[in-house]
């Protein structure tokens, strides 16, 4: 899709486009740097280019396509055991339940097919404002985290959802099973940065980025050595829940990277699940919420180790939200 504009007064290219296109500054910058913008028919890549009156600006919004570096058969084979469940879909947004062990988007270290590949393989219309590797992606989950995500199908929806992330009117509640009960509901406010000794990890660092999480006790297991908890994020740092729990000597079952040790260290995943998402529909302004059912293995673990009837009562999403409201 292409759009054309006429410059009516001198301006910088990026500032002009910001006044004409409903997109964030970063998204406009990416369009220019990836050479999707022409000035008087010539491709430009300088965001601060000075424009003159009556110049013609053409912006190309690329269609989302399968990554040409990945063979389609390879993508299909890589995704064959990945059960991505569609919770809701309309012309503007898609809400899914992402399985664990599926990376959301490409990065230099990613070799397997991603959620973005799955979306493209299934011919789902996607926004293109976040660059080729992140078509449709507004927010993300770690590879090992399962649960609810919203995907933008149009650029206009992408802008609206991104604004909600910034002003905190969209958010998620998570469920986790930890190896030692919390003493009480707790808010952790500790800065996070990349671990200087292990680039795969994040850690609490004095000069890190501000990070704030809240944790709510839900239920103890029968032996009272594990606990099901809920988590709410006020910021979106990499591995934030895992790092903050580790900082108080609590670990998600199976999370060997952040210190979990014990008889369950061979479960091949960590029990962290994005359970509940709330947002405002970017086009209709309707308040919406979605719940992603627990993956089978996590649900089975609860069945075996917890009183299931008690758990079912406490997993009501409205009650979880209400419980957080008592201490945050």
TrEMBL record:
It comes from the Bacteria. It catalyses: a uridine in RNA = a pseudouridine in RNA. The active site is at 142. Keywords: Isomerase, RNA-binding. Belongs to the pseudouridine synthase RluA family. This is Pseudouridine synthase. One of its GO terms (biological process) is enzyme-directed rRNA pseudouridine synthesis. PANTHER family: MITOCHONDRIAL RNA PSEUDOURIDINE SYNTHASE (PTHR21600), RIBOSOMAL LARGE SUBUNIT PSEUDOURIDINE SYNTHASE D (PTHR21600:SF44). Responsible for synthesis of pseudouridine from uracil. GO terms for molecular function: RNA binding; rRNA pseudouridine synthase activity. Its EC number is 5.4.99.-. Residues 11-74 form the RNA-binding S4 domain. The keyword Ion transport does not apply. Pfam families: PseudoU_synth_2, S4.
């Amino acid at each position: 899709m292409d759009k054309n504009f006429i410059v009516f007064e001198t301006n910088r290219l990026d500032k002009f486009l910001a006044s004409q296109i409903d997109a964030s500054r970063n998204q406009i910058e990416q369009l220019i740097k990836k050479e999707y913008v022409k000035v008087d028919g010539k491709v430009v890549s300088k965001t601060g280019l000075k424009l003159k009156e009556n110049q013609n600006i053409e912006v190309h919004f690329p269609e989302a396509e399968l990554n040409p570096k990945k063979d389609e058969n390879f993508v299909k084979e890589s995704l064959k055991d990945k059960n991505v469940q569609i919770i809701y879909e309309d012309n503007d947004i898609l809400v899914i339940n992402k399985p664990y062990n599926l990376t959301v988007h490409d990065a230099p270290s990613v070799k397997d097919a991603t959620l973005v590949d799955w979306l493209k393989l299934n011919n789902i219309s996607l926004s293109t404002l976040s660059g080729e590797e992140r078509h449709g992606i507004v927010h993300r989950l770690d590879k090992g985290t399962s649960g609810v995500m919203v995907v933008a199908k149009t650029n206009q929806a992408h802008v609206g959802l991104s604004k909600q992330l910034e002003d905190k009117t969209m958010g998620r509640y998570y469920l986790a099973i930890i190896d030692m009960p919390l003493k009480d509901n707790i808010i952790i406010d500790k800065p996070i940065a990349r671990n200087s000794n292990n680039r795969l990890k994040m850690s609490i660092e004095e000069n890190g980025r501000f990070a704030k999480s809240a944790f709510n006790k839900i239920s103890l297991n029968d032996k009272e050595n594990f606990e099901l908890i809920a988590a709410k994020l006020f910021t979106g740092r990499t591995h934030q829940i895992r790092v903050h729990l580790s900082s108080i000597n609590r670990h998600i079952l199976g999370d060997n990277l952040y210190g979990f040790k014990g008889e369950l260290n061979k479960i091949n995943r960590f029990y962290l699940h994005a359970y509940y998402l709330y947002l405002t529909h970017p086009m209709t302004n309707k308040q919406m919420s979605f719940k992603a059912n627990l993956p089978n293995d996590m649900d089975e673990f609860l069945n075996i180790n917890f009183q299931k009837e008690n758990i079912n009562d406490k997993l009501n999403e409205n009650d979880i939200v209400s419980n957080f409201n008592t201490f945050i």
